[in-house]
Amino acid sequence: MEVRTEIEGRFWPSRVFYRWRWWVRIGVFGVPVLLGLATFWVLVFGVMHFQSRAVFSMTGNRSAQDAAMLLQTPEAIGPVVDQFDLAARYGVKKAAVIDRLSGMIKTRVRKGSRLIELTVSSADPEEARDFADALIKSFRDREKSSEVSRLNKHLMAARKFGRDLDDQAEERTKLLNVITKGVGTSTKIEDQEALENARADLLQTQKASADTQKQVQALTLEIADLEDPLTVASGPSLSLRPIESLKNPKLLRTLPVSLVGGWLLVLLMPFGLELLWPRRAR
């Protein structure tokens, strides 16, 4: 008997789905499940799953909230990138490495305290620990340097003001000597008032100069004995990151897309199979 290929009506959905019904049944349930598991695996186990957590408190003038925000800025992360030469290691620009590290860093201020929790996540446990330690040291050095610069600015201004007062005192001393010689033994009221005013101005200037010298000494001692801007309560400690649940925003966005894509693949695949292995009739 002659064998011919059935062409007309071969791609009607009802016929295609009926012929490949087992593929559709298995695929509708199986493929989305596999895609969902694959998505979950990539998001949870394929990314960073080590955490290094350190807790420290601010002892300087800066608030804990400001410090927590500054820890995630390029100014704080940049020195860490330079210290480990990460741009050369990863073969990308420094700005890209800073963006990557900022995504690895989380900070939280404990309620009702000045304690800050710093958490660095990475697939490499040593990298997580080293980055957390380096970030704290970099932030400490930056804060101390900023405070020293601020105090030095005040110190320089105080010293300049002290020199100006010394020059002013010297001029007023000369003026007092001139007035004293001019008055001599005069008993005129205006001469005596001029003499007393000159003496008062000189004493006021000398007192201001002495106060400024005390301020200079205090600032110098403060710079020399500058306290650590932060105190580490607990150093970087490693732990496995808990498995992310459906609270993970990436998972919430990716999983529905994977499921819809899987169902579309299942529904379209029978037509491709029909095209490759057409229905035949005798």
What does this entry look like structurally?
The chain has 282 residues and is α+β, with helices and mostly antiparallel strands. The protein has two domains: 4-46 and 243-281, no CATH class; 50-240, FepE-like (Bacterial polysaccharide co-polymerase-like), CATH 3.30.1890. It has nine helices and six strands; from the N terminus they run βααβααααββααβαβ. The strands form two sheets. The chain has a four-stranded antiparallel beta sheet with strand order 3-4-2-5. Strands 1-6 form a two-stranded antiparallel sheet. A hairpin with a 5-residue loop joins strand 3 and strand 4. Helix 2 runs antiparallel to helix 9 (249-276), helix 4 (74-83) crosses helix 6 and helix 4 (74-83) packs across helix 7. It is rod-shaped, with a radius of gyration of 39 Å.
Quick gist of this model?
Helices cover 66% and strands 13% of the residues. It has nine helices and six strands. The protein is rod-shaped.
Q: What's the arrangement of secondary structure elements?
A:
Blueprint: E1 4-5, H1 13-19, H2 21-44, E2 50-58, H3 64-70, H4 74-83, H5 86-90, H6 94-104, E3 105-109, E4 115-122, H7 125-183, H8 189-224, E5 230-240, H9 249-276, E6 280-281
Antiparallel strand pairs: 1-6, 2-4, 2-5, 3-4
Helix pairs in contact: 2-9, 4-6, 4-7, 7-8
